[in-house]
Structures are given as structure tokens and as C-alpha cells.
């Protein structure tokens, strides 16, 4: 099945464009179980090194049991537990998010509005096949191919989402050294360029940039202040912290504070990593926050540590983390 060009939507009427997008998403959901079977667990590569989730924990408050379920989805120092104060003690306003989601899921299944197999197929596709390793492959290829990276970052005005096509061609035509198969095949995207939530994607990069003759060191942070819009086609399922109200609010009001907390969690008290983060922070001229929405998703190419120069593209791919591709953390040596 030949993927469509997402830029063709620019000439379509708003109604027809929305109708096509919704139909494509419905088709994907309907066939998600088949996709997971086609992908298979053998496609998981470098699980221990690619996008290794940060095992953050919820803040501990007296009288409150932390929701540690976030750890399995890439927990972070940003808490998602709604609290209230009663007689000087903090108490939960709602049950932990995992309990709420499971309760809603069970209710929908009982009412036969959804099927458990379809849900599991959807989850398996993103967790086992996509994961964050497709995004990591894109980052590594951009690092080792400056001209390709430049095309990702500066699409022509008439094709604002050209990056989706460039990434599609790379993933379809490049063999994953760990599996001997292409990173992605058209049949698994169900007619979408690189899969749901990847059609309309813009790429930004961290590091030195020249703007109007002035060189700046820029860091980009991705958020979604409304819900959890996110480049799923490259990064897999959203981590819990990305969907939390705290992150959505603080990524706008205190983005540098977010970086500091992620650094503290990733450093785990090591002086060397603390020094690396401080050196990175000292170089910052601008910290840009990108608010993803239903019209466009954002994806970050993190700065590559200089110590990695000379590594192969495959070696670089296995060092890229999911959080770095959202700009929530830097990459450590």
C-alpha cells in the first residue's frame, strides 16, 4: 500500500482532510491486533539501552501511598497524584491513575464498546514494535548525515511536513542491523506516512544554531498543554509523566525547572553526570517550548555528546533515550 503524502492535505478542504485522517486512524485501530502479530516480539532490540525508562518515583507524603505504577511507563520526578490537605495531612483526591484507567477500560469492555484484544494489539504495536527505537534510529541517522538533518529541520514552505516523507523513506529503505529487516514496512502503517501521530510532524534540534547572523545555543522541550499529543509513530506510547497535569502546566511556566528535576533523577547522585548537566545548562541561550496539538507533533534531535564522535550509526542509535527526544533530558556519556 503506497503511503500518502501528508502535504497533499494542504490543498484539501478542512472537512475532507479531517475525514481522511479520522478514517485512517479508525482503520489503524481496527487492524491493530494484526499489526502486533506481524511485528512480533522479535522486533524489540536494545530494550535495555534504547530509551531506558527513568525509574522515577512519586513524591512521598504522609498518609499517601505513592503511585509507583508510573515507573513501568517511564516515571519521572513530575508527580501526577492529585492531593488535598485535610487537618494538615495530604490525602488523595482520586485513586492512582492506573486504577482509574483500568476501571474505565473494564467498563467499556463490559458494555462491549471495545474489545480487549484490540486494545492489547494497539498497545503491543507501540510498546513492542515502535517503542522509542524508531525515533532513535532517526536521530542517529541525522547525526551522521548532516545534509539529511538539514532537510528535516528546514522544510520548504510549500511542504511544511516534508520531514514525514524523509523519515518514511529512511525507515522503509534502511535495514535494522539487529533484525535484518527494514525498520518499518508500508503494511504496518495502514496507508499513513510513518503511522498514526506521525503524519504532521516538525523536527527541532538542540545545540548551536545560527539565526540572523547570531549563534545561539538552543534547547527544545516538547509538551502538550491540552492533553497528550505526541509523536507516537516514532516514540511509542506516552510516558505517564508527559500526560500529567503537573508536567503540562510546569513545562510552560518553569521549563528549566523541569530540566533540573529530570537531571537530578537521571544523575542519581553521580558527580560526573551532575557536572555534565551543569556544563550543558551554562551554555544555554534559549529554552524553547513547543506545544504539540492535533495539527502538529514535535520531535527533538538532541545534541550528541562529543565523546560519541566516531561511533557507528547503529552504536549511536542504542544510546538515544526517549526522554531526550522530547527534550526532557540531555544525553550523558
TrEMBL record:
GO terms for molecular function: nitrile hydratase activity; transition metal ion binding. Pfam families: NHase_alpha. Residues 1-27, 48-80 are annotated as: Disordered. Its EC number is 4.2.1.84. It comes from the Bacteria. Residues 1-16 have a biased composition (Low complexity). Residues 98-155, 217-328 form the Nitrile hydratase alpha/Thiocyanate hydrolase gamma domain. Keywords: Lyase, Metal-binding. InterPro entries: CN_Hdrase_a/SCN_Hdrase_g_sf, CN_Hdrtase_a/SCN_Hdrlase_g. This is Putative Nitrile hydratase. It comes from Microcystis aeruginosa PCC 9443.
